[in-house]
Amino acid sequence: MDKKKTFVEDIERSLYDIKNEDRYSYKANQGLTEDIVRAISKEKNDPDWMLDFRLRSLEVYNNTALPSWGPALDELDMDHIVTYVRPDTTMKGDWKEVPEDIKNTFDRLGIPQAEKESLAGVGAQYDSEVVYHSIKEDLVKQGVVYTDMESALRDYESMVKEYFMQLVTPKDHKFVALHGAVWSGGSFVYVPPGVHVDIPLQSYFRLNSPGAGQFEHTLIIVDKEASLHFIEGCSAPKYNVTNLHAGCVELYVKEGARLRYSTIENWSRNMLNLNTKRALVDKDGLIEWVSGSFGSKISMLYPRSILRGEHARAEFTGVTFAAKGQTLDTGAAVIHAAPYTSSNISTRSISKDGGVVVYRGAIKVAPNAHHSKSSVNCESLMLDDISRSDTLPVMDILNDEVDIGHEAKIGRISDEAIFYLMSRGISEEEAKAMIVRGFVEPIAKELPLEYAVEMNNLVNLELEGTMG
Amino acid sequence: MKKYNTIVNPIPVQTWNWLGVNGTKLENEIPAIGTYKKQPLKISNSAVSITKLDQQNQKYPVLNELNAGLNEELQEFVQANQNSGFCIEIAADDQLKEPMLLQYELDDQDKTLVDHHLILAHKNSEATIVIGYQSTDESKGFHNGITQVYAEQGAIVHLVKVQMLSDQDIHLDAIGVFVESDAQVDITTVELGAAQTITSCKTNLAGDNSVVQVQSIYFGDKERKLDMNYVVSHQGKKSIGTMEIHGALMDKSQKTFRGTLDFLKGSRGAVGNEAEEIVLLSPNVRNRSVPLMLSGESDVEGHHAVSIGKMDEDKLFYLMSRGLSLSDAEKLVVEASFQPALDKIPVPEIKTQISTYIRRRLSDAE
Predict the structure, then answer these.
(1) A326-361 burial by CB neighbour count: b if 16+ within 10 A, else e?
(2) Helix (H, G, I), strand (E, B) or coil at A164
(3) A419 CB contacts (<8 Å, ≥6 apart)?
């Protein structure tokens, strides 16, 4: 069993761990100064308003303290983080033109294959910039825009200016201020009114450069009565220096529109993942978050949905699996800011080998949001007693015409369940693995098939160490 | 008069500051503390040693084991300004069926009360202690107190605290409990009055098979502010902790309840349950609920649930179909939700007082 454990871990990890030579056409100096921010802005040919925005954000960053709550971030030393690395290529529309080593990386991650089989568009980011972008022709004809943020800033400047960091403002917290100052890369999506994008779009973010930060910005606008499924994937090889990810996702769901935003995050375990995601949902709109957090050394990630139109809805389904050396502080927040809004949060957390998992959540019902409903369900499973699992939800209710329910459970795999499965001829290890797979099933079933398979593989990979 | 600007009732683990639940501010100045002249001991028990607990008393090293107080500053304040307090010591194997009663009354003569009590239940003893706080006139009163309970092996203690102070009063109250193996402490708290109420209840299930059951009811009306911070720490193996909280909020009242189940490493086989049910009766209330569950031990069962909303319409409809008016039906539903806690109060007069008080408050609102 031990042999298999090592064997599986080596093979599987290597998929994510292959490091390419750190080639780049431009690399910012380490640290964060006004000169560096100006240099990034110049390198990216920003319009003047964006340079101003970056400099204002830098000022906010310098005047904002680290969060007084959550995991300790002592190891983050901005003086040693490179905030911008432009890969040694321009963006391509054909994989054949993407440099061999970069293309091979994405091949191994299965991106071009998935593009052929099950996606309507793909964006692939390598370090700080997008190296490949494509979208199916029929979507373009219907007016759907799916491009990298740098192109969007050039080609759709007025729309970007109207929405960029208006939902998540630099003053929200220190790491979005940082993002505002040094952001690069990311995807821009616009779905025109009434258009249904039936097949998902996917952006994949790969950080190859050691000691670098990735600060991609994802801006999605789903216009009235339109619908979209967007998938985000992230990974990086492991280095022995700290890498930083401080991305920002802003989602605008207009009247009657639907957006599903799925993420499988598998950053390497030297990564600080301090990501901010937010959705603003208008009348009758629906935001669905599906989130799998497996990687990184420290994660702080709490997608927030603001339901500002009547009958707007938010659904959040998440699984977090923390193993040795990981502190994954994740959760969700919903602001009910209009009448008849509803939210549903369902999470599963697993911790093992000394991993720390935290569910942090908030439900706020504004005084005007009568007839709001919210249901939260969090379950945690601890696989050993050197790990930790904490649940920290808050409900703040300012209206009496509400129906709010919250429930959380914590525990371990019951001996009875294992005994029952073993009595049916299943080995103890397999019985435990089956129970864990069953535990995350409510999340897995929300993912497209191939991602559900990837998540199951990640779960199995993690379990090999525990059960073996 | 002294203004305290420190944060009281800090949450065991901090969260987002924008939610405003990491702690609370004491909004009012603390007045100069005078003497408390009345005799609070209403029902005693000859088998029990009841002595005055003064702040210099070093006789009880167990006090050091008991974590109580809204924060360190106020804990020191109680120790320095105590004007009433008893040590109630129950001898080993003494099982007292009759409750003891301490009743404090704030009025123009006794405006300030700082009380510090220690209930020390020796091995296999059993006792029930009721402590009440009331106002007999409308003068502005101030109460800050600490009650500590130490239950030795196999002992059973039931502590009931009932607060029905007047609308201007300040009520600051902290309970600290230490439970040895096979011992059980039941805490029943009733928070009905005062302009600002800040309370904490910290229990340490130190021994194996130790049990704590917290039953609490609160009723907020007018512009009352309640802030509660309850923590059950599971340290002993197979320890059992329960928190059952029922509340009703109306008018412009505001309430924050932080309830924490903390499973410490080594508390194998521990079971913890927490449930808070809140009925909202007016559109301008504010309810904040923060049920935390912390675990460093895998072999535990923890569960918490919170339910917030208007009164169950099916229940109201049923009662109204039986001929009750809407307001009578509402009163009955609120009272019914409080009943499990009221049933735990062993002094019939106090029970009646509470029921009358709640009914009057609900009627005033009509």
Answers:
(1) bbbbbbbbbbbbbbbbbbbbbbbbbbbbebbbbbbb
(2) coil
(3) none
Residue B309 phi, psi dihedral angles, 5° rounding? 175, -175
Question: In A, which residues are within 8 Å of B281 by CB distance?
Answer: 400
**Token code pair at residue A170:** 């630099």
Name the residue facing A400 among B265, B281, B289 (closest C-beta): B281
Contact assignment for A396 to B295 by CB distance below 8 Å: no
Q: Which domain holds residue A105?
A: 22-404
- Are B310 and A394 inside 8 Å of each other by CB? no
Q: How many residues does chain A have?
A: 468
Cα end-to-end span (Å), chain A: 5
A327 contact partners, CB below 8 Å, separation of at least 6: A71, A297, A298, A299, A355, A356, A358
Q: Do B293 and A385 lie within an 8 Å CB cutoff?
A: no
Q: Is residue A451 part of a domain?
A: no
Contact B13 A409 (CB under 8 A): no
Please give the structure tokens belonging to residue B283: 């559109």
Name residue B158's beta-bridge partners: B128, B186
Interface of B with A (CB under 8 A): 13-17, 19-22, 263, 265, 268, 280-310
**Which ipTM score applies to this complex?**
0.92
| Strand partners for A305 | A279, A334
Q: Residue A412 domain-assigned?
A: no
Q: B188: helix, coil or strand?
A: strand
pLDDT (tens digit, 9 = 90+) per residue, B96-148?
989 999 999 999 999 999 999 999 999 999 999 999 999 998 889 999 999 99
CB B287 within 8 A of CB B319: no
Decide if A183 contacts A214 (C-beta within 8 A): no
How many domains does chain A contain in total?
Answer: 1
Q: Find the helix packing angle between A415-423 and A428-444, rounded to 10°.
A: 110
A396/B301 touch (CB, cutoff 8 Å), yes or no: no
Whether the CB of A69 is below 8 Å from some CB of chain B: the reply is yes
Residue A461 lies in a domain: no
Pick among A394, A418, A435, A439 to test the B interface (most B CBs inside 10 A): A394
Task: Give the E-state strand segments of B221-270 in sequence order.
Answer: 225-234, 240-249, 254-263
Does the CB of A371 have a partner CB in chain B at under 8 Å? no
Predicted pLDDT of residue B236: 97
Whether residue A355 lies within 8 A of chain B, CB to CB, comes out as no
At residue B333, φ and ψ (nearest 5 deg) are -65, -45
Indicate the burial class of A198 (C-beta count within 10 angstroms; 0-12, 13-18, 19 or more). Answer: exposed
Q: How far is A246 from chain B (nearest CA, A)?
A: 18
**Does residue B366 have a pLDDT over 70?**
no
Indicate whether A302 belongs to any domain: yes
What residues have CB less than 8 Å from B47, skipping those under 6 apart? B91, B94, B96
Report CB contact under 8 Å: B289, A383: no
- pLDDT over 60 at A26, yes or no: yes
Place of tokens 């039936």: A198
CA B214 to chain centre: 8
More confident residue, A431 or A188: A188
pLDDT tier for residue B330 given thresholds of 50, 70 and 90: confident
Q: How far apart are CA B321 and CA B314, in angstroms?
A: 10
Query: Cα–Cα distance between A25 and B162 in angstroms, integer?
Result: 73
pLDDT of residue A467: 40
Q: What is the distance between the alpha carbons of residues A226 and A190, in angstroms, rounded to a whole number? A: 10
Cβ–Cβ below 8 Å for A403 and B305: no
Which of A211, A220, A225, A265 is CA-nearest to residue A84?
A211
Alpha helices in A63-124 (DSSP H): 100-108, 111-118
